[in-house]
Amino acid sequence: MTTLPIQDASAAEVHPRKISRKATGADKVFVSSIRVVGSVVLVITGGVGVFLGWQALPTLRHYGFGFFTEAAWQPEADVVGIAAVLTGTVLVAMVAMSIAFPLALITALYISEYAPARMRSVLVSLVDLMAAVPSIIWGLWGSYLIMEHAAGLAMWLDRNLGFIPFFQVKDADPNAGVPMLSRYSFSMFVAGIAVAMMVLPMACAVMRQVFSQTPQGEKEAALALGATRWGMVRSVVLPFGRGGIIGGAMLGLGRALGETIAVLLILSPSFEVKPRILEIGGNTVSALIAGRFGDASSSQLSALLAAGFVLFLITLVVNTIAATIVNRSRSGAGTDA
Amino acid sequence: MTLAPETDATTVGQTFLPRYDEDAAPAVPRASLGRLTADEKFVRVGSVVSGVALAWLITQRLLPLDGVPWFLVMAFVCTMVVTAVTGAMTGGAVEARDRLAATVMNVGAAIVLVVLVSAVVFVAYKGWHALTHVNFFTQDMSGVGPKDEFDKGGVLHAIVGSLIQVGIAVAITLPLGIGTAIFMTEVGGRFARLVRTVVEAMTALPSIVAGLFIYTVFIVALGYPRSGLAAGLAISVMMLPIIARASDVVLRVVPGGLREASLALGASRWRTVWHVVLPTARPGLATACILGIARGIGETSPVLLTSGNAQFMVVNPTDGVMNSLPLFVYSLVRTGEPNAVARAFAGATVLLAVVMILFVTARLIARPKRTKTTRRRPAVDLVMADPLVEMGPVSSASNPPARTEENP
After folding, report:
1. Strands A73-74 and A79-80
2. CB-closest option in A248, A311, A332 to B209
3. pTM above threshold 0.90
4. Cα of A154 to nearest chain B Cα, Å
5. Is B156-369+376-395 a domain of CATH 2.60.40.290?
6. DSSP output for A198-229
7. How far off is chain A from B9, nearest CA to CA, in Å?
């Protein structure tokens, strides 16, 4: 038999237990100390960005908008501008991307769709290893192994496609009996090839990661409906991974813009706004910093910091857009089916 | 093959063993569905062979296009054409497109492989002569000119310098980076989101700018000399966002159920992090850190600005100029002397070997353990937590929705 509990009138009034999410004891120490660590990192990383912007201010105020339109870099004559290095940076990055993007896409598709299953992990490791190869190695590879072949290719391009402004080369005759390969070496084109090899594995890793999240059911459905493998890739994998393809490419672009040492080894510096990527000479922001920091006075250093700050902002914008695209893409949604 | 036995009316419900039918034809093994038949294999291999043969004919006999590059380009074009034709013969345009796509994929992947192998082999080949001298690993470059033979001078001071500088960077970035990652994933809140945003933004910092920052602050403004310490700091500034970011990605994929189980058993948050989250994420964290270190060791530009270029052994990082492997390579290449360049290639080979050792270690640690006991540690999803995508965005997919009863 059940009985109702008898109210004990004499007992003290019952309150609900107090619940607090506040950390106590050792937890309190843990949470606050880890918060301190987070704050320190925030101060360090944020401080770098703020410092760069703060140091860039006097230069930008001194030269005004001319800082972005002046091509020459002659601090002695008080003529300083980043038009030439900025176009150089963009051109080298463009060359790198136009080589790295198709190769990265093809490699990512090959690894995720075409490679035999037991070779897949080996290939993934190889691509990751390629990402770990230091940039100076690619610089040596570009300047000692690729340079002469690339110069030959550049001469051929100039001979046959020289009417396009990008492929023009001044002061050189591509049809000369004795080829003037030196005019075609140390160019933005060669630097772009070396940078491409640094960009490729990173873009490939992002693309492969997105492709590997393609819903298996949709792939099998396409195959069951009679699609060939390429038909399946084109109708399922590529649309699904579109965000990853664009995002991966843009992340690669962010790295290509900031690449220093390979460019410094290959490119012979010149300050000229020109689209002629096959011609000797050119410069990028990072190579400018690496080449000029040594003998810089404090005002020149400020100008270099301003150039570095502009480079950082561009990279930041590119990376942010890339992150947004990858996050917004269909990737990862509806994979539970 | 089996025949139902004649049943007796009195034994309804009884079961019988099937009788084997001796007269039936022997079973034919089922044809494999996915594999190519001998015919198809012949067509594919034959297309490539005829493409190469055609290319030889065109470049060597018909047109004045000598040289290996032309041969390779023509071989690719001819193979594509022959593949398209043979594909179209059997399956029309659809088949032809499929075959062409497969050819492009194979060739593209092969190009990337060739590039990687060529870089590694080329560097090792050019540096081989200098590497065969034992003194290369036991001496420094003090008093050795760029034209000197290989039996003098070596890379020891650069190796020691690299190790010291990266050691400083690791001592700074590892606690800070992993601590920040723990803060971002385990504590959370608005402030943690701010930290995450800033850290993600700073992964975009070009390494040369990190070097320039330390150069301006530490060397120009504070007036310290160029030293190993400055180089270590520059590498730290570059590595810190990368390590924090990669560890964040790794910690985020630790299943939430593990944390909840630990908390539900009465463990404090500190104990949950120390005994559940960190051990689960250990392989991923190790991979992230080792790859970050590999990146730090190989990066030339921050070191170029901050460490100076010592030709002799320096062990004290606060005691003036120092050298490191990437800087050793860079400065020797810049001299342009054949012997110095060969030495630079040898240094690059050593650098490559160091990076590869770190890389292989990372892969071995990251490999999910195959334990025979039933108590298996939940493996971190390595595709999601691939630290090489550390510069990449933490996609929303890497935070899988908690599996609750509403969301099975």
Report:
1. antiparallel
2. A311
3. no
4. 13
5. no
6. HHHHHHHHHHHHHHTTS-HHHHHHHHHTT--H
7. 49
